[in-house]
Write a structure and sequence with these properties.
Chain B: Keywords: Transferase. Chain B: Pfam families: TusA (PF01206). Chain B: GO terms for molecular function: transferase activity. The complex is a heterodimer of chains A (137) and B (81). Chain A has 137 residues and is of the alpha/beta class. Chain A has helices at 14-29, 40-44, 65-74, 80-90, 99-104, 122-128, and strands at residues 4-9, 33-38, 92-98, 118-120, 133-136. Chain A has one domain (4-136): Hypothetical Protein Ychn, Chain: A. Chain A has a 5-stranded parallel sheet with strand order 4-3-2-1-5. In chain A, helix 5 (99-104) links the parallel strand 3 (92-98) and strand 4 (118-120). Chain A is globular. By secondary structure, chain B is an alpha+beta fold. Chain B has a single domain, classed as Translation Initiation Factor IF3, CATH 3.30.110.40. Helix content of chain B is 28%, strand content 28%. Chain B has 2 helices and 4 strands; from the N terminus they run E-H-E-H-E-E. The chains are: A alpha/beta (137), B alpha+beta (81). Chains A and B meet through helix 1 and helix 4 of A and helix 1 and helix 2 of B.
């Protein structure tokens, strides 16, 4: 059984960030070494000020943002960032930003939440993800 | 006859969303002493599978799993190492 879990988070929509965050927390809880590679929308979601960012839903859930936000509040569903923070606290989790995406959007590492550990290229991620269960979200 | 178990700490994670109850349990087990028995209350239906899976993977001991009314369960775990 692989003891490594790797995620490429490309989507910045709230549904997929939630899924990615819960998977990260679960994998960390189960003792996997987790590597998360943030690119495109997934990276932009980790910009500082994420708390104020509105919920973003893909087409199939368009128009449901308010209902979902209310449901999440009523059911005590934590912000997806909290799951990533919890994952880091209980396990060995590394969250990296894709250097090409940062460059494309003219961002610096300082523009990102401190939970993002480093800025790396794809080759570094591939090396870290060697032998890991890997998902693209 | 079963000897009574003394629970060192009980966490009420009812209403906490998946994987919240498990994360709470892990934190508490980490800070507990070896041999301590910890109880966690959860109303997350996933916990019934998740918590025993974690306990087995982490090599601790699931002492009991009890119904506590409503949809909630009480997981009693001994820290073994």
């Amino acid at each position: 059984m692989a003891d490594k879990f790797a995620l490429i988070v490309e989507s910045g929509t709230t549904d997929k960030l939630m899924a990615a965050s819960i998977l990260t927390a679960g994998a960390a809880a189960m003792g996997k070494d987790v590597t998360v590679f943030l690119t495109f929308g997934g990276l932009l979601a980790f910009k500082k000020g994420y708390e104020q960012a509105p919920m973003v839903m893909p087409n199939e859930f368009k128009g449901m943002e308010d209902v979902l936000a209310q449901s999440m509040k009523a059911k005590n569903i934590p912000h997806w960032m909290k799951n990533f923070q919890d994952a880091k606290e209980v396990g060995n989790v590394h969250i990296y930003a894709c250097s090409a995406t940062l460059d494309m959007f003219d961002l610096k590492k300082d523009d990102l939440e401190p939970i993002v550990e480093d800025v790396v290229g794809v080759a570094y991620f591939i090396k870290e993800a060697e032998g890991a269960q890997t998902l693209f979200i | 006859m079963l000897s009574p178990v003394t629970i060192a700490k009980e966490i009420d994670a009812r209403g906490s969303f998946c994987p919240g109850p498990l994360m709470e349990l892990i934190r508490t087990v980490r800070s507990a002493a070896v041999g301590d028995v910890i109880a966690v209350l959860s109303s997350d239906p996933g916990s019934v599978k998740d918590i025993p899976a974690w306990v087995a993977k982490a090599n601790h001991e699931l002492v009991a799993l009890e119904d506590v009314g409503g949809d909630a369960k009480r997981f009693i775990v001994r820290k073994t190492h």
